[in-house]
Design brief:
Length: 254
């Protein structure tokens, strides 16, 4: 499945690898002006060399000032942002009763505040123009607490709530806000996982689904559908059954 979806100017964070990188290439081929942002200047430069429509603007999403500066550079290079895709994320596995404050802090700084600073940068301008599109990449891991996800899962739950909160207000101003909740996709983020990953998707298929969803009016874009349905059903279980199931999962991952 392919799509010719091509907003005028697309800004993508977390664009150096995985879905962000593939999205940038697809949009550029379709004719969009694409600003790609991440911490890795070398990877962004390599990505920009693939298509003249791609402009690299490095940033650190955990640094509010860096995000604001990158947004100004993006607008200077490519004009007003028509579609912003906030995709940067990190994953650290939590283990049992260990509590390590550093991955907690770093996960929140990148996965949650990295999106919050992006929203701060684009929302007012889009609302003033009465048009624009924002996609927040969360995860099905944000539906409920999962073994090993104490650092990652809460950041994704927070993003879902953030998107739900802003959606009605932004819609009133002509701005479409969507949340993207992928399951397992073959990317560098999942490559190091040693546990089973049900319904693992190929990157190309995942990006096809994402771009198709961006063209729709749906609030939630999720894939693979079977994984999303399964996780939503798990989240609806009565707590005794839910915690029994989580205990079984935890034993298999230990």
């Amino acid at each position: 499945m392919t799509t010719s979806f091509a907003p005028g100017h697309v800004w993508i964070t977390g664009a150096s690898t995985g879905m962000g990188r593939e999205l940038a290439i697809r949009f550029a081929i379709n004719g969009s002006r694409v600003t790609v942002s991440a911490r890795s200047e070398d990877k962004l430069a390599e990505l920009a060399s693939l298509n003249q429509n791609i402009v690299p603007v490095p940033l650190d999403v955990s640094d509010r000032n860096s995000v604001q500066a990158a947004y100004r550079d993006a607008v200077s290079a490519n004009g007003p942002v028509d579609c912003a895709i906030f995709n940067a994320a990190i994953w650290h596995r939590s283990r049992g009763t260990e509590f390590d404050h550093e991955p907690f802090l770093r996960s929140m700084e990148i996965n949650y505040f990295g999106v919050a600073w992006g929203l701060e940068a684009v929302m007012a301008d889009m609302a003033a123009r009465g048009e624009g599109q924002i996609a927040i990449v969360s995860s099905v891991a944000g539906y409920c607490g999962l073994p090993g996800s104490a650092y990652y899962g809460p950041t994704k739950s927070a993003l879902i709530t953030l998107a739900e909160t802003y959606r009605p207000e932004l819609q009133r101003h002509g701005v479409k806000l969507q949340v993207v909740n992928p399951g397992f996709v073959k990317t560098p983020l999942t490559a190091g996982n040693s546990f089973p990953m049900p319904f693992l998707m190929e990157l190309d298929d995942a990006v096809d689904r994402l771009m198709s969803g961006l063209q729709s009016s749906r609030f939630e874009i999720t894939f693979p559908r079977r994984m999303a349905i399964l996780m939503k059903l798990v989240a609806m279980l009565p707590y005794p059954l839910y915690f029994w199931l989580m205990a079984q999962m935890s034993r298999r991952r230990s």
